[in-house]
Amino acid sequence: MAAHPAIETIAAIATAPGGIGGIGIIRISGPQALTVLRAVFVPQARNADFISHKLYYGTIVDEEGAVIDEALAVYMRAPRTYTREDIVELQCHGSYLVLEEILRKVLELGVRHADPGEFTKRAFLAGRIDLTRAEAVLDLLQAQTDISARLAASQLRGALFDILEEIRQELIGILGLLEVAIDFPEDDVEIFDGALAVERVRSQVMAPLEELIAMSDQGKILREGVRVAIVGRPNVGKSSLLNGLLREERALVTALPGTTRDTIEECIAVRGIPFHLVDTAGIRVHEDPVEALGIERARQKMEAADLVLFVVDANNGVGAGDSELFQLLQDKNRLVILNKQDLVTPDQLTDLKTLFSGEEVVSISARNGQGLDALQEAMFLRVVDVRGARIREQMTCAPNARHRSVLNKTLATCRRFNAAVAEGSSVDLLAVELQLALDYLSDITGVTTSEEVLDAVFSRFCIGK
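-> structure tokens emitted (465 positions)
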């Protein structure tokens, strides 16, 4: 398969920057890929003919023939490649300095540096994958838990596309009947049964659309996680709680008030959901300007949080500062945490809980780990209940925010269609509504997606993918 001469050859480092690894990969895609390979790579076997999809051992050399690195090289002939173009991959040692030097040599041969996500975009434009699979590639790269990774892998295999295709075929079937009715308006036989069409749209189109939209709530949690702010007065045990949840000494813990002067952020997974924990500065009246900055940042994190863990020192009881801070949380999704339960009696804990009547209260000892498992379970259930989504063990796909917006438009169009049938609207108008619904679904899979949307999708990818 000959490559079109107008297609630019692109290249990029395909392995993540910032560290030292055993292997680093440079990817080249386009009509000049094999020419570039012959220019920079000297195979150990003389007169190597670079058979497609076969690894060759050799060296990477500069223009003077000096060796830059040992490497394995593979040439993959189109169309049996990721982009359906000729592709070369150079597998070198993982030093980023070496990789950048090799890439520079490649680019000097007239190859263009790839844009973020351009390899995957080319795969999409070549018809190798649809847009839902392309977006699943990004989800897989960014997965933070095993559940989110499995979800992305399922979507990469076409789980979302298959559901959308079933819906699309149902709409096409109904639209076909409408178009026949439009073409033969005087036929004595009733071609279009409105009541049957309404039922088909309700059960075969709207119901699965509503299910997909519900899945998107769960997908957002699994992809992005939950922002959790740990707030309270100084020395109530916020940093100890962070360390306890992380099971490591991440935050400095002292008896001196005001030790935490900036936010500390870490992530844990609870039943497959990423919880982004933020340990904030203790909020109190202050004079130290540095501590004041930390307190202001704590307030900002508190406002942006999906869930707030309001920590109270059970040993010292609830003071005026606790009450004032709690008032600031009235509109927040929150859990009350009574810390240092090991220092008080059960009766004292009961009395403290009565002060937070109507609130969900969890008693713990961050220092010795008591109650932390129960706290994690409460965090999970609190987020799931408030978001209105049940995390299912067998989820096969989860539409993202872009998908959700388009699915809602499709659902609204279907509702208008059913209402128009009930009102006795013309078959021409009904056909317009169904065609609009089909256009929306095509926007999700990428059949009719605008270039602006495509640019927005692929710009989120890393360079080299």
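Confidence is low (pLDDT under 50) at residues 1-5, 251-261, 284-292.
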